Amino acid sequence: MSLSLKACLLLQLILPISAVIQESFTALPKVSYDFVIVGGGTAGAVLANRLTENPRWNVLVLEAGPSNEGVLDSIVPNYSFNLQSTIYDWNYTSTPQPGLNNRRVAIPRGHILGGCSSINGMFYTRGSSDDYDRWAKVTGDDGQYNHTVHGRNGKTFVSLYSVPEALDAKIMEASKQLGGDFRYNIDTNSGDALGIGWLQVTVGNGERSSAATAYLAPEYLKRPNLHVLVKNRVTKVLQTTTNRGVPVVRTVQFSEGYTSTGAKYEVTAQKEVIMSAGSFGTPYILQLSGIGNAKELRAVGIHPIADLPSVGKNLTDQPQFTLIWPLGMNETQTFTPTAEHQAQWLAEWRANRTGPLTGVGVNSIAWIRIPDSSPIWQNHSDPAAGRKTPHLELPFIGGGLYPLPGRIMGTNNVVAEPHSRGSISLNSKDPFDPPLIDMGILTHPYDLLALKEGISAIRKFLAASTFAEWNLSLAYPFKDDSTDEEIEQAIRNVAASNVHPVGTAAMSPKEADYGVVDPDLRVKKVAGLRIVDASVMPFITCSHTQAAVYAIAERASDMIAASWR
Q1: Where does this protein hold FAD (predicted)?
Q2: With the CA atoms of 110, 215, 417 and 160 taken in that order, what torsion angle do they form, in degrees rounded to the nearest 10?
Q3: I want to staple 214 with a disulfide (CB 3.0 to 4.6 A). Which of 33, 156, 289, 318 is the partner?
Q4: Which of 416, 557, 547 is nearest to 150 (CA)?
């Protein structure tokens, strides 16, 4: 059978699902594009949907990864961890981290339509209103956070837990007993996140709700002005022309397939190129294109077209590690499932989208501030955005559906807004050579001390009388009687990224000589190029960042549309 015939047969198989998701540029209609979006992730999918609401604008989305359609591990909420270290993950690894005893850490990133919203843990946490007010102060704009806004008819599903855990009642009873820092918060997404509440997740009707399933649903993919190209990797953005001495960057260079041997193409946007390749992909492509620190670019043989030293700097992520307590319990929710159980649960899910596989492994979450009386403040400034902003995130892990061994109770200990900063830079000018990612984890002493404060908060919470019958004894990563030195070494040996990198193409005031984009998300010192993704955040939010990225993309869509009316 000829290759062309095979391709035709394959196309016939996928056409009823998505006639406009293609894998070859030559298969697309021969049209000019008003906007070219680099990256079909969380932000890119939103932009594609919103900009094609105007039927006069043609939009092309270029996604390096494959389509999300039919990927079971992305559809089933409880299977999200199966996506790591696969074709659906960029499989990034950090440089050796001094704060982690020189360990390298894995940093999963979505290499799939929908980006990280197609592979993440589905936590939907907005952060505090302080977070967004701080952004406004940085850029010189008024903040627009409205705590009363909770959509009911939006494209993305947001729900509460669907799989009760034995731990749930204990958590809420302890909250009632202790109050104070552990008070019950009916809605931790109200702008004031502090306290303990039920986790909100991007799950609907028993399936993951991602940017791809929501904003690139079949009804939107039918739009004749929206074209999506997957398995095509952008290697550079190119200077198209010059306007009054300013480089105009509206041309995108990309390579078909997953390797450097694929066919090479270029496409030019009539209005704008929008970078939505994420906190790693966006600065990486900018630097390959000659936009970044001029001295660093020349060192790897790249001619700079715009000297923007902030590109790739300010990398911020939340350090975290997991604590585990074994339980002497027999509830079915609290043991590692057998293959038989997994088969039964999958059968139930396939039949009616219910059962244990619809859960994400966490039902409740605590957001805690470090006490004002803590000695941590004697030598360190407060990195939190304001008084309504937590320093620590403690999601409670209720049993065997989470990928931890044995009958357990666990919690992650997360520094929500750290002081440490890292960077992303080029290893060479080869676009298929992985970047150098220095996460900077625990390079600032505050972050380690904050993790220790998290341990104290967890111990205080578990001292509530409701937990007495469980006779809890910490088993990992240290023991209850471990010394402070042993605890510190354990943290450095197991801590990792919370995989919420932001800030590598940060916003700043329009006339500032630092930062990468202005308040309208236009790249400084060039024209025709905008960035819309987590890289533009000047500070990380006290949250899992997908909610903030959705907000950025929705707001950017309005700004872009308004600028071309």
Answers
A1: 234
A2: -100
A3: 156
A4: 547
Select from 417, 486, 420 the least CA-distant residue to 454.
Answer: 417
What the block records as the tokens of 284 is 């990486």
* Residues tagged active-site: 500, 544
Per-residue pLDDT reduced to its tens digit, 107-166: 999 999 999 999 999 999 999 999 999 999 998 877 666 666 677 788 999 999 888 887
DSSP tally for the chain: helices H, then strands E: 13, 22
Residue 127, sorted as left (phi over 0), alpha (psi -120 to 50) or beta, turns out to be left
CA dist., res. 470 & res. 35, Å (int)? 58
Instruction: Please report, as a single letter, which amino acid is at residue 160.
Output: L
Record the pTM. Answer: 0.94
Backbone angles phi, psi at 128, to 5 degrees: -100, 160
Q: How many residues does the chain have?
A: 565
Indicate the helix (H) or strand (E) that contains 172: helix 166-178
**The one-letter amino acid at 533:** D
- pLDDT one-digit tens code per residue, 28-39: 998 999 999 999
Q: Which of 394, 386, 448 is nearest to 420 (CA)?
A: 448
* Omega before residue 434 within 30° of 0, cis: no
Please give the order of strands across the beta sheet that includes 408-415: 195-198, 362-368, 392-397, 408-415, 319-326, 496-497
Which amino acid would we find at residue 244?
R
Give ∠ CA 234-280-117 in degrees, rounded to 5.
Answer: 90
Instruction: Return d(Cα 288, Cα 265) in angstroms, integer.
Output: 16
- CA-closest candidate to residue 202, choices 154, 149, 132: 154
* Dist CA 393 CA 378 (whole Å): 22
SS (H, E, C) 85-138: CCCCECCEECCCEHHHCCECCEECCECCCCHHHHCCCCECCCCCHHHHHHHHHH
On the CB side of 395, how many CA atoms lie within 13 Å of its CA? 25
